[in-house]
Amino acid sequence: MKGLNKVGDIVLLGLSSLAVHKVRSGLTAMGILFGVWSVIAMLAINEGASYESQQSLRQMGSDNLLIDSVKPSADESGAAQARGVLNYGITWSDQRTLIDNLPGVVRWTAAHRTQKSAQNGTKLIPCQVIGASPNYLDLGRLALVAGRFVSEADQTLCRNTAILTVSLARRLFGPDDPLDKVIRLGGESFRVVGLVDQPSRTMAAVPSELAMNLIFIPSATDKNRFGEFTVINTGSSRSRERVEVSQLIVQLADEKTVLNAAKVVRSLLSRSHDKRDYDITVPLELIEQRAKQRRLWNIMFFTVASISLLVGGIGIMNIMLASVTERTREIGIRRALGAKRRDIIVQFLVEAVTLTTVGGLTGIALGFAVPPVVQTLLKIPALLPAATMIIPFLMAVIVGLISGLYPAMRAAQLDPIEALRHE
Amino acid sequence: MMKELVRLESISKRYVMGRTVVTALDEVSLSIHEGEYVAIMGHSGSGKSTMLNVLGCLDKPTSGRYLLGGLDVSTMDDAALSDVRGRRIGFVFQSFNLIPQISVLANIEVPLFYLGMPRPQRHPRSSALADLVGLGHRKDHKPTELSGGQRQRVAVARALANDPLLILADEPTGNLDTRTSQEIMELFDDLYRRGRTIILVTHEDDVAGHARRVVRLKDGKVDSDSLSARGLAESKAAQT
Q1: What's the CATH number where B149 sits?
Q2: Which of residues 172-201 of B touch A (CB under 8 A)?
Q3: Residue B139 is part of which domain span?
Q4: Could you give the C-alpha distances from B41 to A282, A289, A416, B56, B225, in angstroms and in order?
Q5: Does A287 touch chain B (CB under 8 A)?
Q6: What is the complex's ipTM, to 2 decimals?
Q7: B82 in contact with A at a CB cutoff of 8 Å?
Q8: By three-state DSSP, how is residue A402 classified?
C-alpha cells in the first residue's frame, strides 16, 4: 500500500515536470501523435477498401459458381470462323453435363445474351438483350424496382415481355412511367412489365458501354424470336456469332462444396473445349483471395506506418536524454534525499510513457476523423475496427517504455555526489 | 552520557587518479554522540568534503567501519544506502540545492515523498516546518522567488522533514552575506538546543564557533579534536 502510494506520487511528479516544459512536451508528443495517426489512417483505409470489395463479391453469392461464355482471342477463333459464323462458348450439351455431374447443385439458371437496339418512338438505343428464366432474378442477384420479372406464364406462352434496367428505362422514356409501354426490339414489339436496378455484376464480356443498358426477356421468347445468333457490325464487314449459353449460374448446397464443384467444372470444360472460350468465376475463391491480399496490405501499411512511430520514439528518447542532462542536479538532490535508483527510473519512464500516451490518445481522437475525411475527399470507404485503435495505442505505450528506458537508466546510474556538483 | 550516534573505525577513502592513488581519508576514527554539535574544519584538500560524503552515506569508504545509530552502513548496497539517507540524515548544502520548478512546501516534502508518506500527512508536516523556519508566508513560492537566506531556511526545513538522527551541513553560509549567515547559524543553534545532532563542515572560524566541538582535518587525518569556546563554557556550567 505504501509502495503503491509512492508510485502514484511519482506518476504525479512525472506529469508535473512535463507541465513545466509545455511546448517541448507538446512537440515531442506530436511525433507520436502522427505515428499513431498514420497507423490508424492506413489500417482504416485498407480495411474499408477491402470491406467494399468483399461486399461486392458477397453480393455475387459465396455459394455460387458463374460460368460465362467469352469470345476467344482472334488467333484462336480463326478456324471456327471459316464458315462465316463464329461458334464459341458454353453449349447446351456442356450445360447438361455440368448440371448432371456437379455434386450438390441446389438451383441453376442459364441466360442467353444478344446485342440489339431498343426503340421507343424515335429513340434508338443499343442494348444487351438477355433471355432469362424466372429464377434468374434471384440467382443473378437482380433487385426488382417496379413491376415484375419474367414469369412461368411468359415462358410457356413465349410472351413478348421485357424488364429494363432503371437507367435504360430513363434513356428510353425520360420521366414517363415505362410500365406497360411498348418498345421495339429486333423487329418485334415488347411490353415493359418491370424495372430492375443496375446489377453489381453482369456478365463477363459485356461491353462496358452497354453494361447499363440491359433488357431481360423470357428465355423461351428469346430462343423463338431471335435464336442464338448475334450479328456484329464492324465497320463495313458483318460477322455472325453463335453462342448457345451466355451465362450459367449454379447455386450449390453450401460454401464447402463450392471449391470442389469449381474443380469439377474446370476439368469437365477443359475436356470438351480446346480453346478458352469460357470464364469461370468462383466468388468464394475471390473472397478468400481478397482476404489474403488484405492481410498482406495490412502488414505492409502497418510496417510503413510503424516507421513513423519509430521516428516519434527516437524523438522521445532524444528529449528524455536532454531532460536527464538538464536535470542532473535535481537527480542528485533527489538521490541525496533518499530516492533509490528505481525511483528515478520510474520518474523518467512515467514522463516518457505519458508523452506517448497523450500523443497516442490524441492520434486516436484524430483517427476518428479519418473515415469521414477519406470518404469525402478520396471517395473511398474507410473503416475503424477496434483493433485499429488499440494496436497503435499499445504500440505507442511500448515505444514510450522502450525509448524512455535508456535515458531513465542513465539518470539512475548518475553518481549522487557528481550530480550534486553539476552546474 | 548520551548514546553514540556516529562511530567511524579506521575509515580510509582512496581514489585512483590515473596512475596515482589519492588518499582522501586516512584511517580516521571518530565518535559523535546524540545531541552533539560538531564542526569539521580543514583547508581544501584536507578531506573534509570526503568526510561529509561518507558521513552522509553518499560515498562508501574504501576500508574501515562506519556505524550510524548502531547500523553498519559501510557494507550496504546503493538501495540500502538511499534508504539510510532518506530515513536518518538531513542535508543542508552550501548551494541550497532546492528543486527550482516546485514550491517551497513541495521541496520540503521531497524526503517524505521517498519515505512513502501519503500526501495528506505530508502537507501538514511541511507546512509546520515552513512555519518553524520562519517561511510561513512563502509556502507556495518557487525557490527562485526567494532570497538566499530564505532558500537556506527552506533547505533547513527540508533537512528536518524526515526527523533525521543527524543533520549534515556543508558550508551552509558559504553563499550568504554576513547578516543572513548569522540568521542561519542562529537557526542551527536553535536546533541544537532542541536536541538535534548537527555536523557542520566549514572552513570559517566564526561559523565553527557556533559548534560545541571542533574536529580539524589535515591531509586526511584528524589533526585535532577539541571543545570550542562555547563548548568549554557549556561543560564548565554543567560541572558547577
Answers
A1: 3.40.50.300
A2: none
A3: 35-62+77-239
A4: 95, 85, 23, 16, 10
A5: no
A6: 0.94
A7: yes
A8: helix
